[in-house]
Amino acid sequence: MLNVGVIGCGYWGPNIIRNFNAHDEVNLVSVCDKNAEALTKIKNLYPGIETCADALEITRSSKIDVVCVVTPVSTHYELALDALKNGKHVFVEKPFTATAAQAEELIELAGKKKLMIMVDHTFLFTSAVRKIKEVIDDGTMGKLYYYDSTRVNLGLFQHDVNVIWDLAPHDFSIMDYVLNKAPLAVSASGVGHVNEQEDIAYVMVYFQNNLVAHFNVNWLSPVKIRTTLIGGEKRMLVWNDLSPDEKIKIYDKGIDVGTTEGIHNLLVNYRSGDMWAPRVAQTEALKLEVDYFVDCLNEDKTPFNDGEAGLRIVKLLEACDKSIQNKNKMVSL
Amino acid sequence: MLNVGVIGCGYWGPNIIRNFNAHDEVNLVSVCDKNAEALTKIKNLYPGIETCADALEITRSSKIDVVCVVTPVSTHYELALDALKNGKHVFVEKPFTATAAQAEELIELAGKKKLMIMVDHTFLFTSAVRKIKEVIDDGTMGKLYYYDSTRVNLGLFQHDVNVIWDLAPHDFSIMDYVLNKAPLAVSASGVGHVNEQEDIAYVMVYFQNNLVAHFNVNWLSPVKIRTTLIGGEKRMLVWNDLSPDEKIKIYDKGIDVGTTEGIHNLLVNYRSGDMWAPRVAQTEALKLEVDYFVDCLNEDKTPFNDGEAGLRIVKLLEACDKSIQNKNKMVSL
Amino acid sequence: MLNVGVIGCGYWGPNIIRNFNAHDEVNLVSVCDKNAEALTKIKNLYPGIETCADALEITRSSKIDVVCVVTPVSTHYELALDALKNGKHVFVEKPFTATAAQAEELIELAGKKKLMIMVDHTFLFTSAVRKIKEVIDDGTMGKLYYYDSTRVNLGLFQHDVNVIWDLAPHDFSIMDYVLNKAPLAVSASGVGHVNEQEDIAYVMVYFQNNLVAHFNVNWLSPVKIRTTLIGGEKRMLVWNDLSPDEKIKIYDKGIDVGTTEGIHNLLVNYRSGDMWAPRVAQTEALKLEVDYFVDCLNEDKTPFNDGEAGLRIVKLLEACDKSIQNKNKMVSL
Amino acid sequence: MLNVGVIGCGYWGPNIIRNFNAHDEVNLVSVCDKNAEALTKIKNLYPGIETCADALEITRSSKIDVVCVVTPVSTHYELALDALKNGKHVFVEKPFTATAAQAEELIELAGKKKLMIMVDHTFLFTSAVRKIKEVIDDGTMGKLYYYDSTRVNLGLFQHDVNVIWDLAPHDFSIMDYVLNKAPLAVSASGVGHVNEQEDIAYVMVYFQNNLVAHFNVNWLSPVKIRTTLIGGEKRMLVWNDLSPDEKIKIYDKGIDVGTTEGIHNLLVNYRSGDMWAPRVAQTEALKLEVDYFVDCLNEDKTPFNDGEAGLRIVKLLEACDKSIQNKNKMVSL
Hints:
Oligomer: homotetramer
Number of helices of chain A: 9
Distance between the termini of chain A: 41 Å
Helix content of chain A: 25-40%
Shape of chain A: globular
Strand order of the largest sheet of chain A: 14-13-12-11-7-10-9-8-15
Order of helices and strands of chain A: EHEHEHEHEHEHEHEEEEEEEHHE
């Protein structure tokens, strides 16, 4: 049995608690939050779980093997550090840390102490993202041209981070996972209308061979959009995460470039074929992630969403900040 | 009666010809194209119209008062210049010219010779764009936050211009018209996968008071998208030009920012109200534009889509090129 | 405090239990089901609630004031009868009973014993249905022309009833509520492909003044559709219950009939105006219904969804059966 | 060369004229209409075509081999009869005739005189309908369960026919073509709100083996819907004719019925698989139909949309009228 403690019981914490608690090989020992009301709700749902207001009771508990850090990003480093120092494995909410330096320090410490870090990039456990990775990896898409993501809605305003740190970690982690390539540079633009932090932003990520990724994140949109287009040489894909039944559509569409007869006579033919919407299973992603967490510990495997994966995302976020501060300048990675 | 000649009979030319020809006060005298087949089609449809292969027969004809230039952009300057020199009013396809310098020269010449320039920013004559301008101008939207446009589809590849020069003139002219503000700066990113010219690009335009405009133009999208979001303090608007019946939706949604109690206690309340889709008439925009062209000549009015309007768009396009060449650098206007 | 017992813990029962249990003035005493596994789940969620396998322990319990009957329709009569005989108020799942005669008997008994019957027509407590009733009642729609409902999807097959008894009670109760008119006749067609019971059916309900209602119910549709069109003289309405944000759209569209100049010269003009999507709140309907149930008991009010309302729906269902057995014959009510 | 005359220049006539005129082997001799304005438009577009106001000038012209009857249905019989009597082949707008008896008389006469009748069931020449027929005929769909069509919009009111005679001929001819089965019976309901003719109607058509077809036709709908669902044992299909790119979606969905363990223990499993949207070409259907007409004449073939096909549709329409007059009674065919 794994003995697990959870720090943080806000928006996402109850889902972490529910899924760890439901796992057969997990004993959810204790939950911590400064908000007494949040703890009361947990007590009502799970009378057997202890609660506390001081995170150190979790990170330093002798009864706990694993600490889940589900707090605002500004506290991730301190809490994860204390947990690792006390010999606990950590499951950390995304984004991993507030700076790349913090992430690197945690990774080094975990390495020394042979402890596991998993960063909660939940989307990587959805059937939709798995299917996208599959059709990229097996060559169905062909050489990739672009990755274009839109994640906009009204709110939720965070007090401690801007819209990029709030929304883009989802998309950066998905891009990192499905493209599996090292980005060369980042540029970002953003403005804040409600307070000093950006509530609307656009990010470009540049890769080799002219592959580009673009991210539109916005807290001030009247409509909710969760759409990603991926263009490849052989096929093109649209992922609409809000579609109940047809989340992924793969188009047998594209262009065939013929022999150029001189610079102004490029022969471009359009291909227009069938569209195919593969069935996407509806399992809860977080359940699969918790299963995977336990498996990795049991079998002493390094998870693909480890500290390094978390660090890659934090580096992208830092580069965005730097680009915005420098008027949209391209920042090398 | 206005005697009109049309140079260029490619994709858009036949629409220009049809609409000028249908106007009661227009006598469509002559059509010019290098492609004999295109001219034959015109002859079959309109046996009374003369045709020719040499544009100078139009620009220098003593029987013609107005020259429509519906050719590739690289030829606009030369043809419009010759027409103006020969005392003709000109109706020029968008984008107006290949460089701002060319546009300025044409504007100056027309001014001296008291001739009219109209640039064919057709979208400004659609009921949808008129309605958007109306709700911005009458205060319905409140202070504006952002303008976010997506115009993507598969093809049509132009040989002589990149995707920005092909698709963005539509959106730049609409933005120029409905916002009616002078942009401060531009940044743009783009890559070319099919040939050396950009086929995917993203453009930011910066205004005072943190108002930003963003443009996503792409020739390599499997799906056709023609959507613009406009966020305002009071209301937000979605324009989906592909929707047959509900092109414009206005949302009584937004945020109300309360008194801040300290820097980390911003009170943000979300407003969620009704949505309203005003009826948008379905008159052909180009017909209205041709009517307006004739009216302006008859009443000696300066059209709002004059050479200056065309120049503003060309300056934005030039700034995009400069930004792409300088790695996405912000280019002041 | 109201002491409540619930019989039936299948698909819908847990929602009844959750909502009654959450009400401040309710003491949820006991839950009954023949399935031990279902009871264990309830025990885990609500350790304080008693469970039992014999429904009579609920209907005859001296500790219980209200019995919720959430079992298959074939058992409603017997269980509600026993509960009423033992002086309990009843909250009965829809459809109320398997026959109109049963419903009448229960209504009579409740009347004699001054006990309350509420039939769980949950949809009548949704904001969408409330809004529809509002725009009909306040004259926004004008004289009504038709009510046209489609409720189709793949499954869920019931063993004991056909697709009409399974799906149409929702729509019949909504129609009954928003139209508030007595139907004159019913006709129905249906076929069964999977077993002897109808899995596809179409129902017409006829009212005075040529008002008609039509219902398309189907367990064999590849796509889920939940759409109702209501046509009125002044306005027309589309209710798409699957739309997350724009469930109700009201169209200022219609026809204006002018003076007829002879029988073949009817002057029909089409009106095409704005569309308006009123905000629809997202409160849980069942919570509002349980609140209403408690209010009605406290204030000794007769609920609008009482036994009589339940009986009206059962009469429609019986008429459908009769029409199908008589080759789609119109059955008077 | 075929010498063709066209009677009727209203809504659809100009399309017939355009397509026959464009055919290489057709000489479009003359067009007839009582409306002088309509003829003037034709003259302007096609100066070489003769015009006349008297249909007999067409049906009795010695210069004409083929007469196209594109007039209101009440006149089809008389005009086609006169054309056939005078030795012309006929191309008749749908519905073929106002009564089955008229259709039978025309078929008999054409047979005797070895003349061809083609009824303009244009939809049978669309790529979408062709694809539907293909997946039914090749077994992709499996045994068919139902055909469910919705064709509703605001207007167009016909003065001489009801909504069934106006809209359902499209759907009846498509059903007749893709199912290729003889219907057993028809029932229909309808009401008229604007004048005495039905403007809203619902039709059921019954086939062997419990296959049913249902048609919802309505002139009073605020939204335009053109959707057909076809359910089969192996696959299910949705045809949305208003979708620009994905008109046909084929779902690998359905049910697998297991061994029944007693009457109340039917084992029904749901299959949920991929969805596939085959590419549907965008050729103009009427062009293909005119090509086919000429081919049939050249090669002395009997068209599949011959007088018999037209008659089958008229019989269905007559049965609808009879059922409505008899309170929705099932009418055997």
